Amino acid sequence: MECVVKWVGDASFLAETGSGHSVMMDGAPEAGGRNLAPRPMEMLLVGAGGCTAFDVVLILKRGRHPVSDCQVRIQADRAETDPKVFTRLHYHYVVSGAGLKPAAVERAIHMSAEKYCSASIMLGQTADVSHTWEVVDTREAQTQ
């Protein structure tokens, strides 16, 4: 896996991934940025959220569970002094499906957190990590 990150001026950077995708990053105005794109540390959270959401959906689909939606909200705290690593991460999942069993969702989240999500597990080396979840049964929404 590789990427190239190129400075494009002020506090803006363009990253190109090994798979050929590009993403901009920018700094806060107080750091010389123009607030035109996510900060690099926000990108770490985005990556961790994408990694675990991907895992949860894939685990549920492979188990033939009726998953139709998955959202992950991550709240994070950082150290006050340099290096300003993440010190606390809280993941809240909202997983939807018609008749989706809460135990299956719980199992998928635990599997992601403990075995599969490299990004979350890596960030957990510096941060206290917690998880909560809720399951939305879309059958109830369809009958109302």
Structure description:
There is one protein chain. By secondary structure, the chain is an alpha+beta fold. The chain folds into 2 domains: 1-38, N-terminal domain of TfIIb (Single Sheet); 40-143, K homology (KH) domain (GMP Synthetase, Chain A, domain 3), CATH 3.30.300. It has helices at residues 40-62, 102-116, 118-123, 138-143, and strands at residues 3-9, 12-17, 22-25, 67-78, 86-97, 128-137. The strands form 2 sheets. Strands 1-2-3 form a 3-stranded antiparallel β-sheet, with no helix packed on it. Strands 4-5-6 form a 3-stranded mixed β-sheet. β4 and β5 (86-97) form a beta hairpin. α1 (40-62) crosses α2. The chain is elongated, with a radius of gyration of 18 Å.
Quick recap of the structure?
With 144 residues, this protein is α+β, with helices and mostly antiparallel strands.
CATH topology annotation of the largest domain: GMP Synthetase, Chain A, domain 3
Q: Which structural class do the helices and strands define? A: alpha+beta
Largest sheet: 3 strands, antiparallel
Q: How many separate domains?
A: 2
General form:
elongated
Beta-strand fraction estimate = 35-45%
Instruction: Return residue spans where pLDDT drops below 50 for at least 5 consecutive residues.
Output: none
Write the CATH homologous superfamily of the largest domain: K homology (KH) domain
Order of helices and strands: EEEHEEHHEH
Report the CATH C-level class of the largest domain. Alpha Beta
Number of contiguous helices: 4
InterPro entries: KH_dom-like_a/b, OsmC/Ohr_fam, OsmC/Ohrsf
Protein name: OsmC family protein
Pfam family, one: OsmC
